[in-house]
Amino acid sequence: MKIVFATNNNNKLREIRQILAPGFTVLSLADIHCLEELPETSPTIEENATQKARFVYENFFKKNLITEKIIGCFADDTGLEIEALDGRPGVFSARYAGVKCIPEENIEKVLGEMKGIINRNAKFRCVLSLIIDGAERQFEGVMEGKILNQKQGTEGFGYDPIFAPKENFSNRNGGEDLISFAQMLPHEKNRISHRGIAVNKLAAYLLSL
Ligand code: IMP
Question: Is 160 assigned a catalytic role?
Fold first, then answer.
């Protein structure tokens, strides 16, 4: 089954291809010759996911620019919600340190705001918006965890070096140390992550059609 993943983020594309292989062929925006930045100007994660998926549906599927047999398209919007920061950065996760900031700057801002704060509880929330023949359906994945005091690991992307998922609180070395997403191999992160949870729900729905 072929499906378009509407994202400008190659890290997300890589993760979702790994999770959905081999049953699904996930096409990128480049594969359908969509070279534009996707709009994501909405006030919530849910609406941003809708906005991105609708953009591709309206401009490519509805205008019959898709020539091969592709079932539909979906988009992902994800936010890191930190309890002690009243849910921030949330929907602003991508541009928390400024409109054109790099992930490193976002991490520094979060670590600065979390300095001296005991409550480190946080969660990643991923919402996928799927559009098939104009009809939309959303799938959510949540992974709870803790914000670390400093960066750990080099795998993954975005906030991965400072987020330790709950699933790994008792780590594989038998110690008490928290393991960040960036210290996991890609398949280990995908197995438990917010995105993995949401994508598996989406896959189950597609297979039920
Ligand atoms: P968006 O969903 O593309 O708007 O991404 C929101 C922000 O969260 C960006 O800064 C991403 O780098 C970050 N982000 C999204 N997914 C993940 C993830 O799985 N791990 C770490 N950071 C992420």
Answer: no
